[in-house]
């Protein structure tokens, strides 16, 4: 039994007329009759009642038609799934992200991706930069959002937006009453740096900016992650410089302040393994690179 036999049978069963069924199938009537007879012989049961003027389904034919329709629908769906998977319009992606991006740009990315490719399923994981790089290379995630610079020959990056820096101070701190703060004012207080491990690049950027004031820096703490830094600021242990999107981290007892000084911006990038550009990943990249980020999340 071949798939074409099933399609031939459905056409005859729906038309209840061999000539009309043959026209629908773009074939002549005699070969169609032969194929249906071969199908009945293989099944060892008649599917059709035939007279010179009338064709009708036997009880076996009615039951067979219902099941064949299910089979053909499932096959058609399987073909669609395979084609969509091959084109990247269907599939699954594992998406790592730094903490702040989950609350800033990730909602916009996921909404746009769902609108363009509703059959692409995305699982989002909050991961540090170090974790993202490790899991990209291990194949545990397909793509990530992280801060630049990154130096890894196996990982490709492309900047999706650049953001400025802000000061974050304890809410009871004298600086918290100001509308903005200068770097000169900030360096007079104990500093908390985010700069352990792979954040050493951001740590160095922060130190380069603050050192311009030509004042001795008081380093109170150094931490690995931004949300830890914000928590320590809220505890009154110091002040800090953070990227603007980090201000989406709402922790009690901290105040975010714009800087009165011009400072270099920090790049935020999409990252992926250079040898694992799957069709689904390419679709995601197409969507992300078309967006004007960062965008405000909706409430």
UniProtKB/TrEMBL annotation:
A Pfam entry, by short name: HTH_1
Keywords of the record: DNA-binding, Plasmid, Transcription, Transcription regulation
Domain of life of the source: Bacteria
Cellular component GO terms held in the UniProt record: protein-DNA complex
UniProt entry tagged with the keyword Hydrolase: no
Annotated ranges, domain HTH lysR-type: 1-58
Gene3D superfamilies associated with the record: Periplasmic binding protein-like II, Winged helix-like DNA-binding domain superfamily/Winged helix DNA-binding domain
MF (Gene Ontology): DNA binding; DNA-binding transcription factor activity
Keyword Amino-acid biosynthesis assigned: no
Family: Belongs to the LysR transcriptional regulatory family.
Entry function: Transcriptional regulator of the ttuABCDE tartrate utilization operon.
Name of this chain's protein: HTH-type transcriptional regulator TtuA
Lineage: Bacteria, Pseudomonadati, Pseudomonadota, Alphaproteobacteria, Hyphomicrobiales
């Amino acid at each position: 039994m071949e798939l074409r036999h099933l399609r031939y049978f459905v056409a005859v069963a729906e038309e209840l007329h061999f000539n009309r069924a043959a026209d629908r199938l773009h074939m002549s009537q005699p070969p169609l009759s032969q194929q249906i007879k071969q199908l009945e012989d293989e099944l060892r049961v008649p599917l059709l009642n035939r007279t010179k003027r009338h064709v009708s389904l036997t009880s076996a034919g009615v039951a067979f038609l219902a099941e064949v329709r299910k089979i053909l629908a499932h096959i058609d769906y399987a073909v669609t799934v395979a084609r969509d998977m091959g084109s990247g319009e269907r599939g699954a992606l594992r998406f790592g992200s730094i903490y702040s991006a989950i609350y800033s740009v990730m909602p916009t990315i996921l909404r746009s991706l769902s609108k363009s490719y509703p059959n692409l399923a995305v699982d989002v994981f909050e991961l540090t930069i170090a974790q993202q790089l490790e899991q990209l290379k291990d194949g545990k995630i397909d793509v990530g959002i992280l801060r630049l610079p990154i130096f890894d020959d196996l990982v490709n990056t492309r900047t999706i937006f650049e953001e400025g820096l802000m000061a974050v101070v304890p809410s009871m701190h004298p600086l918290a009453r100001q509308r903005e703060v200068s770097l000169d004012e900030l360096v007079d207080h104990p500093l908390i740096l985010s700069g352990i491990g792979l954040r050493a690049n951001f740590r160095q950027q922060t130190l380069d900016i603050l050192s311009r004031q030509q004042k001795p820096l008081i380093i109170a703490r150094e931490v690995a992650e931004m949300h830890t830094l914000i928590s320590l600021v809220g505890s009154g242990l110091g002040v800090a410089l953070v990227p603007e999107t980090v201000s989406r981290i709402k922790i009690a007892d901290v105040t975010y302040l714009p800087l009165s000084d011009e400072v270099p911006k920090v790049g935020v990038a999409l990252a992926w393994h250079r040898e694992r550009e799957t069709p689904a990943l390419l679709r995601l990249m197409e969507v992300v690179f078309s967006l004007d980020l960062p965008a405000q999340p909706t409430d």
